[in-house]
Every structure is written in structure tokens, then in C-alpha cells.
Amino acid sequence: MSQQTEDQGVNLPNPAEMAKTYAEVAQRASRIITQFMEKKAKEGVEAPSDEMGVARAFMDLSARLMANPYKLAQAQMNMMWDYFSLWQGSMMKMMGMPGAAPVAAPQKGDKRFKDEDWEQHFLFDFVKQSYLIAARHIHDTVAGTEGLDESTQQKVNFFTRQYIDALSPSNFALTNPEVFRETVKSHGQNLIKGLNNLLNDMTDDGQLRIRMTDTSAFEMGKNVATTPGKVVYQNELFQLIQYNPGTTEQYKKPFLIVPPWINKYYILDLRDKNSLVKWATDQGHTTFIISWVNPDEKMAEVSFEDYMLKGTLEAITQVCEQTGEDSVNLAAYCIGGTLTMSTLAYMAAKKDKRANSATFFTTMLDFSEPGELSVFLDEGTIEGLEKKMEKRGFLEGSEMAGTFNMLRANDLIWSFVVNNYLMGKDPFPFDLLYWNSDSTRMPKAMHSFYLRNMYLANKLKDPGGITLGGVKIDIRKVKTPCYFISTIEDHIAPWKSTYMGARLPSGPTKFVLGGSGHIAGIVNPPAANKYGFWTNDATDGNLPESPEDFLAGATQHAGSWWTHWHEWVTSLPGGSAKVKARNPAAGKLKALEDAPGSYVKFRLDAQKKD
User: Fold this and answer.
1) Which of 334, 364, 365, 389 is catalytic?
2) Which string of DSSP letters, residue by residue, matches 63-121?
3) Torsion angles phi and psi, residue 138, rounded to 5
């Protein structure tokens, strides 16, 4: 063995140096744990709580499993037979004999096992298949348990998956071939560097905030949020940005984008190549966007109603004032779309006709099927969030981001654990992940109202279910032409749920289903020629009752939905009329500062360092 390694030119580490390195890692880790425990002891230990009812759900699961011991024994026997087959195949592979087909194989696209040693090396292949066999049988047993109510079943399924994902052999140094090779190659320096990365990611309050990208590599207005323009209005809730024209003439109807306030607006203006903002201005649209403020404790009582009256409605007023037009084309993303539809219903009741059209990106209006987010949205969980918000006046943006990351834990949590802490690498500069880390706070009053009335009670879909500004909101009275774009792999706003909401307004409605997920499917520029989209033109204005019927009769198109939307919005009455290009600095409103403005530049991680 040693001669073979010498012939291959592999330099094995000095055992004494390796022992010294591992001892250093162990000592430093021990000090970290000791310091953390001492700090927590001084702060006092809070009794563990089960606000989400996870413990209760698993106790119910255990009782149901024990009530049918024969079925449980059968599941255990089936797993043992799979292990017998694996042991037999692994022994044949170890002895150089052609092995049988794998007993368990990772799903297509599972990046955890992309290293060739997971398949070529019999030992790592054995570890991988052992894990996959256990994962499959655990999942099948939990998912097949009879007698659980729907809410409990969703919780045990979701948190069982979190447990299974956490125990993947790819997440441990000795069972990940890539990490193992790097440890031998660097004499363990990757683990030392990884420990330093771990220390840097620990906050003062003992929370781990895993860095997904190198935030120092980006500067607002320089390499993200770069489209030139001016802030032409601001109040305590938002800044209004108008972008410089990209054409000599512009469409007469101005275009106002209402982004979500969970993250910053510049997901729609990351860089020139994938900026919806720049693309829209280059097509000739007079483009405006709302840049929401990042709220603090002083804004604890800011309500969902305030976001409508002082946010969307005020922005529409200012856009009309700046351009001299009597109506605008609206577009809104996610929760910004929920707010915008509420605004349209309010305007319909007030006979306000300033909305020429409305486009909704991955927007939920009917929350009856919220997907896996429902795990975090029962009465106990919301009460727990409200207690936290009562103390601080807001919900930390990182807490919301953590919830979304758990929906795709392997991609958004464990891959970075391996890269940062086991491989000892610094996060790669990536503008999308920079934006993803730039989360904002949620004001207490607004967020409580939103969670309870939308997700928990699902009142928005009901005529008069909620009241805003003294008006009973009824989406069915909205006659504004609407364009809904949802994405087939969306894990935050499932497309079948958004489809049900698209059937609520009574005006002409077009529903389009894009490829990919919540972000990539929306930020999909035509130049990339990716993903494609589905339309069902035969049913425009009269959407089929079910999303399945829509998809069954849909036609798939290549490329980006952006061009399809542009054709739709300019084909509306008066949509093709143009005027001389509008300079933001020459309008009726005063140009306050250059885009991207000051509201967007405030980052929570920068604040914490201060």
C-alpha cells in the first residue's frame, strides 16, 4: 500500500503533524463550546418550548406506529432485506467482481453525491447506499402512518426530512470523500480554516448565520442594483425610483413595480444581463420601482393597511404626478402582489381607475394550499412569533430567511456547511445569494395581520373577508386586466395555489406558468433562453376550474415569459401609444438622490457589526 502510493507520487501527511492538527482543532472547538455554555449559564437557561408542536406531532406518530406493531416489524424486515442485498453487492464490488444494480441510488440532480468516489469506491458507495436505504424506509414509514391528522402528518413529514438531510454522510468529514481527500492533502488545514469560518459566522447572541456568499464583493449601485435612475419621492415607508430612459421614445403608460418587502427590491435589478428593470427600460417602458424601508422598533405598529395607503396607493399617486398620466401599469412580486391585489380591490370600491393593468409574479391570493410553509403557520407557531415581535417590535429578517432555507435545506444550508466548515473554503461571490442574505425586518402589526388573515384564516379570498382603509376588500370586483406568472417548481408560492387566486378577479385574466422556481423562473431574461413557459390561450378570461385542467390544455413555449408579457401589456387599449422619453430629473417631482437610493443600502449584517 505504501509502495503504491509512492509510485503514484502521492505525499502522505506526517502522522505527527496530522495528530497535532487534529489536537488543535479539538482544543479550539472545546474552548468555543465551553465559552458558549458559560455565557448561556450567565444569561440563564430558558425552559424548552414547543411552539410549533413538533414534539406533540412526533409523540402522536410514535403512538400510531406502536399501535400497529406488525406493520412496523414488516417495515424493519424490508429494510433488513435491502441491507442484505447491499452487503452482498458491496462484497462483490470489493473483490473486483461485477456487482448488481445498486439497491438505492440518489435522485437525479442530487448534488450531495456528485463526486465520482461515491460510486467508484466500494466503501463510500456502501456508506452512500446505507444512508439512502435508511432514508427511504424512514420516510416511507413516517409518510405511510395511518390515523394522523393532516397538520400532524405535514409536520412529521417535514421534520423527518430535515433529520434525514442533516444525517447525510456528505455532511461529515470522515464519510465525505471530497472532504477526506482535502483533509489528507492539506494536512487538516481545511478543518482549521473551517473552524475559523464557523467562528466568524457565530453572532454575539450565539446564533449561527451561515454565510452563503462573500458580501464584501458587492457594492450597491456598483455591481448590484446598477440601472441608473433617480429617487423622485420618499416617505417613512418607501423610496420611489424612476429609471433613466433606454430609448428615445417611451410608452405613454408608466410602469410601476411593487416588490416584496421581505428582501430588498434589487432582485429585479441584480446586474445588466438579468435585470428586469433594465430590460423594461430598454423596451421603452417608463419604469418606476418601490424601495421599501427596512423597519426598526419605531415602526412596530405599522400595519398592512399602512403599506397599502402609504405604500402602493401613494406610489401610484406620485407616478401619475411625475408623468402626467391618469393610469399606470402595475407589476408586483410575491407578498407585494398580495398587497397590490388588495389595493386594486380597494380602488375598485372607491371607483379609482388609475390601474391600467396589473401583473403578478408568484403571488398568492387564495392561501388554502400554501405548501410546506404551512408547517410554520399554525396557531401555536404564530403565537410564538408574536411574542418575539412584541419584545422587539419586529421579526428579524434572518428568521424569515431561515424558514425559507429549510424548504431547500440541502441546497441552502448543508451545501454551505460542507463548503465553509468542512472544506474550509470561503463562500463564492454570487449576486443572487448576496440578495438572499439581504433580508429585511417585518413590522409587528403588519406581519401578525398578514399571517393571521392570509395564511391562517385565508380571508383575502372571501368577499369582505378583510377590511382596509374602511373598505371591505372584495377581489371579485377587480376588473383590471391581470397577468399572472407563476413557476412550476416554486416551493414558496406553489403554482397550483397561485392559480386558484388568479381565478378570483372578474376582469380579463391571463395565467402563464413558467419553468424553474420562485426566483430563477421570474428572473429569466430572454437572452438566457432558459426554462420556457406554458400558456392556455383557448381559455383566456375564463380559466379552467383546476390547475390540472389548465396544464392539460396548455402549450409550451421556449425562452422567457418576459417577451410574452411585453406583447400582452402593449396590446391593451392604448398600450402601444408613445411619448418622448421621460428624464427622471425633468419631471414634476424633485430628484432627491441617485438610484439605488439610501433605503436599500441599509444591511442588517452591517448594523450588527456596529
Assistant:
1) 334
2) HHHHT-HHHHHHHHHHHHHHHHHHHHHHHHHHTTPPP---SS-PPTT-GGG-STHHHHS
3) -60, -45
Q: Which residue has the higher pLDDT, 244 or 2?
A: 244
Element (DSSP H or E) covering residue 264 = none
The mean-pLDDT minimum among 3-12, 92-101, 170-179 falls in: 3-12
Alpha-helical (H) ranges within 95-232 are: 117-120, 122-143, 150-166, 177-185, 189-201
Q: What whole-number distance in Å separates Cα of residue 71 and Cα of residue 141?
A: 9
- In the block, which residue shows the cell 431574461? 525
How many beta carbons lie within 10 A of that of residue 337, not counting itself?
A: 27
Burial of 71 (0-12, 13-18, 19+ CB in 10 A): middle
Cβ atoms of 177 and 113 closer than 8 Å: no
Task: Return the closest-CA partner of residue 274 out of 39, 26, 522.
Answer: 522
**What is the Cα–Cα distance from 250 to 64, expressed in whole angstroms?**
65
pLDDT in tens, 16-54: 666 666 676 677 667 666 766 676 666 655 555 666 778
Residue with cell 442484505: 84
What is the value of pTM for the model shown?
Answer: 0.89
CA distance 85 to 87: 6
Q: Under a CB-based contact definition with an 8 Å cutoff, are residues 460 and 342 in contact? A: yes
Where b means 16+ CB within 10 Å and e means fewer, 119-150 reads beebebbbbbbbbbbbbbbbeebbeebeebee
pLDDT 10s digits, 146-191: 999 988 999 999 999 999 999 999 999 999 999 999 998 988 889 8
pLDDT recorded at residue 273 = 93
Residue 229 has φ and ψ, to the nearest 5°, of 180, -170
Per-residue DSSP letters for 338-379? HHHHHHHHHHHHTT---EEEEEEES--S--S--GGGGGG-SH
CA distance 298 to 277: 31
Examine the residue annotation and report whether 334 is marked as an active-site residue of this protein: yes
